Amino acid sequence: MKIIGLVGTSGSGKTTICDILKKGEKATIIDADKIAKKLSKKGTLYFKSIVECFGAHIIDEKGELKRKELAEIIFEDDKKREELNQLTFIYVVDEIKRLISLSSAKDIIVIDAPLLFESNLNQICDFVIGVIAPNEVKVERIMKRDNIEEDLALKRLNIQKDNDFIRENSDFIIENVKDIEYLKECIEEIKEKIK
């Protein structure tokens, strides 16, 4: 089994890299954000912990989390963001490890986790690929993807680790500034180095 950590800020293009690895390498993608969303549905322990931490005002009339409101809180309040991160590490990291334990020895696993280092998931990876792009490119991608204004996109980027941190802490770097063919070439180069 090969476990690859994939890290990068919002808008860097991790999803595109995951798609390439899934199609070309038949990799299993473990998406930490999707797991967090699934585990925080109404009635789960993670959901209850979030409501305890943030208060009942973040629940809508259907009893689900007001995710947009929760996002606004954590982008504005460092303390609350850290509290949510700590809860996330408890539930999501355990689930990621459980999913890995179900894999076979031949599998290639990609852990797509924005907080890979903060959650210490990098320690179970054979290597880490960092995906970076210039800030102006990331801001443009975030605005388009999430249909938000530039100031909000910048706010999101400013609370995340920057390109320098990702460069210093990753085994390999992919600069996502060209087309899909270029990204495929980058992945091929990495494959050659890890043989």
Report on the architecture of this protein.
The protein is an alpha/beta fold and 195 residues long. It has a single domain, classed as 3-Layer(aba) Sandwich (Rossmann fold). Helix content is 54%, strand content 13%. It has 9 helices and 5 strands, in the order E-H-E-H-H-H-H-E-E-H-H-H-E-H. It has helices at 14-24, 32-39, 45-54, 67-76, 78-101, 135-146, 150-158, 163-169, 180-194, and strands spanning 2-7, 28-31, 108-112, 127-132, 172-175. A 5-stranded parallel β-sheet has the order 2-3-1-4-5, sandwiched between helices. Helix 1 packs across helix 9, helix 4 crosses helix 5 and helix 6 crosses helix 7 (150-158). The longest helix is centred in the middle third of the chain and has 24 residues, at 78-101. The mean pLDDT is 93.
